[in-house]
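Render this sequence as a predicted structure.
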Amino acid sequence: MKIRDAVAADWDQIWPFWRTIVAAGETYTWDRETTEAGARALWMSPAARVFVVEDDGRVVASAYVKPNYGGPAARVANAGFMVDPAFGGRGIGRRLAEHVLAEAPEDGYRAMVFNAVVETNPAVKLWLSFGFAIVGTIPGAFEHPVHGPVGLHVMHRAF
């Protein structure tokens, strides 16, 4: 597997799993019916550094890192991660997280914050293992399609 910076042409391979993950409505707060153009603008924003994981030439995961805030707080990053569900359970998300967490300080970030991690998301355990702390939870803020109203964690890690 190879992790590299994304190029515009990678979107065609990111979009199918992006759509599947967001449409499931279990882990992201984005509108489940986000259009492809809207999704591309969210994920491939010019303000973001986007990474992909390739396996035999196929993009199987992606992440973005961008400033969470502006101005004097722009050194706090925000990130999003997605692994194609067909490739889940192989440690790809962990390897991508390791890569992104190593690159973010090199890009000048001092910390990373996740604004809305669904408390039932298995990734919570991953982020805790990487030293993130839950600094707050907004109870019942997310309407989960299976569990009903669940909390959204705000998670933080300094570099």
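Summary. The chain has a mean pLDDT of 97. The longest helix spans residues 92-106.
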